[in-house]
Amino acid sequence: MRVFRHSIAALTAVVGLPLMALAMALVPRWRIGWRERLGGGARQTPGAVWVHGASVGEILAATRIVDALRAKGHDVVASTSTSTGRDVMRRTRPDVPCRLAPLDHPWCVSSAMARVAPRAIVLIETELWPSWIAAAERRGVPVVLVSGRLSDRSFPRYRRVAPWMRRTLRRLHTIGARTEFDRERFVILGADPDRVTVSGDLKLELHARPRALAPELAEVLGSAPLLVAGSTHPGEIPAILEAFAIARAARPEVVLALAPRHPARVPGAVELARAAGHRVVRRSALAGDRLGAGEVIVLDTLGELSSLYARAEIAFVGGTLVPVGGHNLLEPVAAGRPVCFGPHTTNVAQATRILLECDAGEAVANGAELGAAWAAALADPDRARVRGEAGRRALQRHQGSAERAAQLVVSALGAR
What we know:
This protein has helices at about 1-25, 35, 55-70, 85-90, 105-115, 130-140, 155-160, 160-170, 180-190, 215-220, 235-250, 265-275, 305-310, 330-335, 350-355, 365-380, 380-395, 400-415; strands at about 50-55, 75-80, 100, 120-125, 145-150, 175, 195-200, 225-230, 255-260, 280, 295-300, 315, 340, 360-365. By secondary structure, it is an alpha/beta fold. α3 packs parallel to α4 (about 85-90), α5 packs across α6 and α16 (about 365-380) crosses α17. The chain starts with a helix and ends with a helix.
């Protein structure tokens, strides 16, 4: 079996490496951290718990369990699949070593495992990498999946490869699912029912209220009413700009902050806003001039979106007017602000339900409906704040997922 495994690894390396080299040549951002992706990078002090989240949203959720594990006396290292996620972790938890995750190839994984030498691995949501999990099993390193979810989109795909999924799931020490519904889906795919429990959704675990805006950003915004559209995708920008035009009829002095989901999309957002007739400034290029009525600031920095949400009258979260499935709807509500979102919310279904039930969230189908929702909030800011605080109170009832997830990891460590 070992000879067969190495033969397959060699074959995939021979085929895959030229393709990887071509991809890095064509897409410059893929060159970032290529040594870490191949399993290289700095060696860590052995014996830490390795926590992995896919990108920005998952790594922010991961900080909750990172904090819980460190509070229990465990050393932690982190990884993410994207450079933006790595930047966020390094900025928010600078004393936690963070690297890019290795490609899920046996050689890359083996090299990374040797450099990190973890006591346990914690995967967030649906990071089910077969080679990585198998390598951990061979080394006797328990793997715990927390905040585990299987979306309506991913579940049918996994069912089509159920025999392979079953082998990977059975290698996990424990699965802490978000909900009972997710738990049942993991069992259907072949997970050991005795190893699957419901630990909750880390993204429902509230952080403290966001820190204050940076002084230069606060100065530029002044006292103007603010609308924020966060985690946006290119197909959503025209609808957001349409909504902004409608909102200006309610309060002409309003300004808009646009935060594209990916930094590479910032130039496109700037271009679209300018084409719509707005003066646009980038956050990274503030000159100190206060934004005027109807002007747009595009967020091209990391780590300030939650502070902007707290300054807003009402927010919109993207990936929902286009069929992406939605991003973190709870960040504005954690800051005490109501939030609008489109119809595509499969990735955030539980958060959507909670926010609709307490009137902190509002579903919109297009730019006209988003504009009407924004205009209503601008016309009655006191009611908007009441709605946001109602959402924050509703989320308080869902706290404790980080502690439950951390306890699963502690139990896995004790079972070694």
